[in-house]
Design goal:
- The chain is of the alpha/beta class.
- Helix 3 runs antiparallel to helix 14 and helix 10 packs across helix 11.
- The longest helix has 26 residues.
- It is globular.
- About 35% of the residues are buried.
């Protein structure tokens, strides 16, 4: 009997609890609903994805047949030459139909590019809606004139936007002004003639990398070992290094630069180390001497097949291979400086896409860009196809990937009044580093102040 009474009371309690719950739910109608299907757009998008990517909620807008102009110094039309670019083109076609717009890709010759796009921005009549701009004349110069939209709030999708570019490399006063979908970085380092290395009996350069002993000292040892008069006629027959100057590479390799934001950095200890190293390469006559050629002379030296190493950028490599089919060519990072713990690449003329301030609704343009480039890539890492089609050696690919992950942007060309090439020439001509620094550091600071308006 007691058991039946207990069961009856329990059932009564559950019924009353259910009624109270329904009443409470009714009371919240029109005030707050915590059902996950009614969350805010950002929360809903994040909850729908299991890859942790922050995606912009779906937007509904009609651009009325507008043509979006995308401007660069090359034609940025999707090439459709691999599954990734095909997917981007398919996404674009769907977006064009859904949001009623078209796209025009405009390519302007690099030689006239800066002048034309800058003039259009200053006139309030931008040459395009999405415009590629070089950082040297954009940050801070154009940004301080309020000519560009800050865009970092719209570029959180790491599949579609390179987060380092927007949030670290193309910033001013805490805001990001540049964007790109490209996830790879410029690869700079040492290209070397593996065939010549073996012929001369030189220790494989890759061994130094594998031993974590690829330093400025071992670099100079390798150069000296290849600087040879092989037939004893008094003239060099082979050389170790094609480049007469390694200044920018030395700065990056020592994790330093000539400027830091709005301050000169010439007397920083790490910068002084890079300047002294550059001076040693020149004054000890380690590199192949000039024959009066222009800026392409070092690459022409390397092509002759009698110079072991050339300091350059990845985009040059296919040209070397085409011109030197009889040689096995390799790639290693530029050697570490004493202030560095990793191998670095660098970019002295960094660029990214921007949106002029006179263009309406930048969030819609960035939404389109995001949805175009948010794809499930077939590749395991950035620029995989380019590396694998160029390098035949797995170590070369690994070296390229290593330096690409550590790219520094050198900003000294941002300041037009700083005579960089005169500064470099004095180092190469043997003027003492201390004298050069004392001569130029005030000039450099004044040039910086001109740009930053101090």
């Amino acid at each position: 009997m007691r058991n039946w009474s207990f069961i009856f009371l329990l059932l009564l309690f559950l019924v009353l609890a259910a009624c109270n719950g329904e009443e409470a739910a009714n009371e919240t109608d029109g005030v707050e609903n915590t059902d996950s299907s009614e969350t805010s757009g950002d929360e809903q998008e994040e909850s729908e994805e299991d890859d942790g990517v922050i995606r912009t909620p779906e937007m509904d807008f009609d651009l009325g047949g507008r043509t979006i102009k995308i401007v660069s110094w090359w034609d940025m039309t999707p090439a459709e030459d691999n599954p990734d670019s095909i997917a981007v083109k398919q996404n674009l076609d769907e977006l064009k139909e859904k949001h009623n717009f078209d796209v025009e890709y405009i390519a302007i010759d690099y030689g006239e590019y800066q002048e034309r796009v800058t003039a259009s921005l200053l006139a309030g009549e931008p040459i395009g809606d999405i415009v590629r701009l070089g950082k040297t004349y954009t940050v801070p110069t154009l940004v301080q004139q309020d000519l560009l939209w800050p865009i970092d709030e719209y570029t959180k999708n790491e599949n579609a936007f390179n987060q380092v570019v927007t949030n670290e490399l193309y910033t001013h006063e805490g805001r990001g002004y540049g964007f790109t979908e490209a996830q790879g970085n410029l690869v700079q380092g040492i290209f070397y003639n593996r065939t010549l290395m073996n012929e001369l009996g030189i220790k494989p350069l890759q061994d130094y990398v594998d031993e974590d002993n690829w330093s400025w000292d071992t670099f100079k040892e390798v150069i000296r070992s290849a600087n040879l008069d092989r037939n004893n006629d008094g003239d060099m027959d082979t050389w170790g290094l094609a480049n007469g100057s390694v200044l920018e590479r030395a700065l990056a390799a020592n994790n330093t630069s000539l400027t830091v934001d709005d301050q000169q950095n010439l007397d920083d200890p790490a910068t002084l180390e890079a300047l002294n190293f550059t001076s040693e390469i020149a004054t000890e006559q380690l590199s192949r001497p000039t024959e009066g050629g222009d800026w392409t002379e070092p690459s022409q030296f390397f092509r002759q097949g009698n110079t072991l190493m050339y300091a350059g950028a990845f985009h040059e490599f296919n040209g070397f291979q085409n011109d030197m089919p009889e040689y096995d060519l390799g790639f290693v990072p530029f050697p570490k400086g004493p202030n560095a713990e990793e191998y670095y690449s660098y970019e002295g003329l960094f660029q990214a896409l921007t949106i002029p301030k006179s263009v309406d609704n930048p969030e819609q343009l960035l939404y389109i860009w995001e949805k175009m480039h948010d794809i499930d890539s077939i590749y395991d890492y950035p620029d995989q196809a380019a590396y694998e089609s160029s390098f035949t050696n797995e170590e070369d690919i690994a070296n390229a990937r290593t330096v690409a992950e550590n790219m520094l942007v050198l900003d000294h060309f941002t300041f037009p009044s700083f005579e960089y090439y005169e500064f470099e020439a004095e180092i190469l001509e043997g003027t003492s580093v201390s004298t050069v620094v004392e001569t130029y550091k005030n000039q450099l600071q004044s040039a910086i102040d001109e740009v930053y308006g101090q």
